[in-house]
Amino acid sequence: MKLPDLTELAVRNLRESLLRNSLTTIGISVGVASLVAMLSLGIGLQQLASRRLMKSGLFDTVVVTSRRDLRNFDRQEERSGPTPGESQVLDEAKRQQIERLPNVLEAYPDIRFINELRFEDKPHLTMISALPESAKSNDAFDSMQGRFFSSDTAPEVILQKTFAEELLGKRPQPGVDETNVAQLAAQLLGKELTMRYAQRAAASATPEPKPSASSNPDAGSSEDEGVPGASYSVVSRELELKIVGVADLDPESMRGPTRARVFLPLKLAESLHVMQPTDLRELSHAAGDQPVYSSVSVRVKNPSHVQPVEDAIKKMGFNTFSILDASRSIQQFFKVLDVFLGIFGSLALAVAFIGIVNTLVMAILERRREIGIMKAIGASDSDVKKLFFAEAGAMGILGGIVGVALGWAIGQVINLGTNVYLKSQSFPPEHFWAVPWWLVAFAILFSFLVSLAAGLYPAGRAARLDPVQALRYE
Amino acid sequence: MAIGERTQSGAPAIRVEQLCRHYRMGEALIRAVDGVDLTIPTGEFVALLGASGSGKSSVLNLIAGLDRPTSGNVIVQEKNLAKLSREELARYRLHTVGMVFQSFNLIPNMTLAENVELPMRFAEVERGKRDTLAREALSRVGLQNRVNHRPSELSGGEQQRAALARALINRPQLLLADEPTGNLDSRTGTEIMDMIREFNQQLGMTVVMVTHERALAERYAQRMIFLADGKLVSDETNSAVVAVASEGERQ
Hints:
Chain A has about 475 residues and is an alpha+beta fold. Helix content of chain A is about 50%, strand content about 15%.
């Protein structure tokens, strides 16, 4: 029998015992829905976690420091690195060398300094940090009011919400609902901030020394790369900065007390040559024509490249730091979670499987005579078998489609409910439910295959039915 | 002349040799068919007669390819059914045999047209042709106005006519009828029997009919074969019918 005929007969037969077949199909739907719901929860949570972690820049970032910076001396994760004596100076040449390593997207210096900003003639002291253009994708800026920097050298700033509140004289009160960022932004966007800073200008020989904006290798270690006797002058400068964005979340939440609340474009910050107290320590060797950095952040293409890049940088004689191991165990956790959720989801489908077997075995008993007639008028064993398979398959596909829709709906309801709760607890809404297309296709296919498998025994039994006995059956 | 053999007017359509069908029922061995030899020429109208349990239906089922012999051969058109695979047997039932039953055996949830169409589905006849052929077959048995009715909406006679239309839809050479008038009143039964005789005479189909009504057999069958306890006990030519039939042929 041809497929269109099979399908037609199967659908006709399913319609004949409408109630029983509907109930069986609903059983499959519930099974598929629970599988889809469980897996989409797992996938959604995993996506949420990796989105957060990836965007936080922790998992594709290697932080490189020079061992000569004694402030880092006791950090445990660096004990395995080179000793201070062997370590290299982390200067521009080394930064470029690191940037040329395979799978490295960018290596940018970590520039941060404490400075005064004037807004409407009131001074405000804060930590300022520089952001590379790639920081645009950091999810701290997803819900930002305003926009990201127009260019890497634009005299523009992005404020963190708490600093914006400070500028407007609002004090965050504990227990009270969060201040609306949009309101803050409305009052601040487009306004100017004045930054007064001390620029470190080269004294004579080197025309444009780009000094590090932050700390530098410890002066106590005996080094000879520096040019002894180098000197520089300090010039007072003023810069007008336009407020272009107010960020709700804190892009530097992981940094603890040293986190910045005002952000400048990286190239602009580099060109300012802001004088820092630590500059004094650089005297001995920083006056060469290359800036020296206390730390460089290296972004790699994806987390799997962290380890090789870290190894390569260590070979160059620097300390490195990444949270690779943490990410590895988190990914492992989600794999295990997916498997468990999948198993729980499949349990309902297993019950549905038994439902299909039951329905079809009942159908054989009920349609025994019909099977006998069909055989008497020329149906072959395989015709009968295919017919039962088609019925099982049709229930499977139908149940799969309804189940996916049901699972999706359950997900939406739970997502909505959770977000209402999150909102009531003053948390931003989250999307922790994901039904990717492959899951939709997989669920329907899986439902179809499970149904066919369930049809295996009944179809075989129907095909083997002895026509003489079947015709005698009343 | 031995029982079961006769002078043949045509090539044998069916040859049954030492046919046995035994089965076990608990400890007992039931010999439903026990060593039957039979030759039926093409175009003959044969009645199998006997009391209940005489084995007449079992012989019919074996000729229909619905059952397999325990031993012996059923040779139809040079094919030994005992040696065919299940698939080959199904094809034989589909193309060579048309069957009608005492209880009509139409599929209750299908309309008459769909019932008649069903064998064509199995035979993979083109979709476009099927409906026309089914309607033609139904109007041939006078059911052109009942095409979209379900069996339960019809009288017994109408159902048996539809079953006849279905049996003939794939143009088989054999028409096997198991008590075709058993559930019908005598007037309707006569109608059906007239129709079967018409197919036998006009289309040249070989007809084997199982019945326990001697009168019916005497009226329609050219030959009457009597069975008892699975054995062939008598094989008679119905000279009256044969004479009428040859008269018809001459005309």
